[in-house]
Amino acid sequence: MRRMTAARAQSASLLMAAALAAGCRPAETLPVAWRTPLPQAAAAGATLAVDSAGIAWIGAPGRLVGIDSAGRAVATVAVEGDAVPRLLWRSGDGLVLAVGARRLARAQAAGGRADGGWSSAALRAAARDPRGRWVFTANRHGGVVGLDAGTLEPRWGWPETGGEAVGMAVSPLADRVYVSTDRADDAPAAVQVRDAASGRVLFAANQAEPLRGLAAGPDGTLYGHQENGLVMRLRHGPRELRRIWAENPGVRGSGGEMEVRVDPAGRRVAVFGTGRGARLAVLDALTGRELGQTDAPLDAAFDVGGRLYLLEPEELRVLR
Q: How many CB atoms lie within 10 A of CB 194?
């Protein structure tokens, strides 16, 4: 039998390693409806949001670009400095942006330069009043400042009541404001439930770990995640937040961070990690059952119809 040369042996080893790596790679179980090439490549740290008109807004250092379904850039909003903006929501022709971590700004959907908006070194989270009257913001000690939704000027404030805010949401009926706080001194991590009219804390639901990325579903249930990898669904009762389910889909990568996105129709929840090896999982919103996984994108967003958009470096993937 002819002896295998060193070069051939090395080649065979590489082929075997590639085959094993392919076999160990998690299966792609989320079918793609379509792909849209980007007019300009997106880099790590880019943001994605899809507005009510179906425009995908991609944030990059110093700008926010609106992309239509054909992949054409239809508007560009410039922001001051090199911060990466994120579209928070659209109301008519107006946009509200988060510019970095400590500033909110207004802009027009037609493009142009964003205005000064409102900034605070204490800003930690923001959420919109579904009625469109206020923008609620939470600070580093759990206090809340209400901004005029049209001008982003502060109008009122509620007292600081806990640790640093790590998440915020408003109920669909706009009658409750939820502020998730970290531990502070002897106070545990908690989700504070406030009356939206008076700011009074109705109760605080203590948590073993801070509940981050807080989001309210259309039926009023709350979703969030903890640093231990758990994703949770909570239901608001008279004096408690009852846990409906808690699942760990194992999506965190080397970056260690997680993000949660909730389908506006309340059917699905997307959770994804950051860094090498990160994944994106789609869960059934009612049961927490995993519906499928794929490689983690740069960012992800649901549109108003419940389609899930994934931002990749060269394209948008839209899942069925």
A: 22
Alpha-helical segments (H) within 107-254: none
Q: Residue 8: in which H helix or E strand, if any?
A: helix 6-24
Closest CA to 61 of 43, 75, 48, 49: 43
Give residue 245's domain range: 32-319
Q: In 10 A of CB 268, how many CB atoms? A: 18
The whole-number average pLDDT for the span 135-152 is: 94
Say if 25 falls within a structural domain.
no
Is 281 inside a domain boundary?
A: yes
Do the beta carbons of residue 57 and residue 65 sit within 8 Å?
yes
pLDDT digit string (tens) for 2-56? 444 544 444 444 444 444 344 444 567 788 999 999 999 999 999 999 999 999 9
Domain count, the chain: 1
Query: Are 107 and 80 within 8 A, CB to CB?
Result: no
Q: If pLDDT is split at 50, 70 and 90, which confidence band does 221 have?
A: very high
